[in-house]
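2024-03-11 09:14:02 INFO queue: dequeued item DUF3280 domain-containing protein, len=174
2024-03-11 09:14:02 INFO validating residues
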Amino acid sequence: MLLRPFAVPLLAAAALSLAIPALKAAPSVEAARSVIAIPEIGFSDSSGEARNQQAEHDARRQALTKGLVTELGAEADLASLPLACTEPCPLDAEGVEKLRQRARAEGAEFLLVGKVHKMSTLVMSMRFAVLDTSSGKLVLERLLSFRSDNDEGWRHAGAYVAREVADSFAGEAK
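2024-03-11 09:14:37 INFO prediction written
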């Protein structure tokens, strides 16, 4: 059967109209994101200040943890997984090992742990580390000092930690 000249463009248009919805329905391939588990950030105070600031420090510690979960979860290369603890997360060697195993069981490839230490009214430090949940290998570790025991000082420290962690994962293939 010989097709008439005007039928060929109609058949091509019909075939194209069937193919376009199929292309739209095809799942997009998204780059895989590494999952980083983030338990609550720890805190200790050896400043010897007379006024009890535990409630303020607990609120800042929780805000710092939440900020890290949010900021790292917004990164293209990372997805964050908050790990809640019923009491302050234990950050000694045994506690970190349990957190690492728990993070791995929940599907995270990495674990971010950290602790803020208040040394005086003005000076604080924060040590944080990222561990590979499969091997326990240390991927990143930093010790930073920051000033101002107030919401802004803690926010600034959290933003720095998020940048350091995100930069260490930027562009890395899993």
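2024-03-11 09:14:37 INFO annotate: The two ends are 56 Å apart (CA to CA).
2024-03-11 09:14:38 INFO item closed
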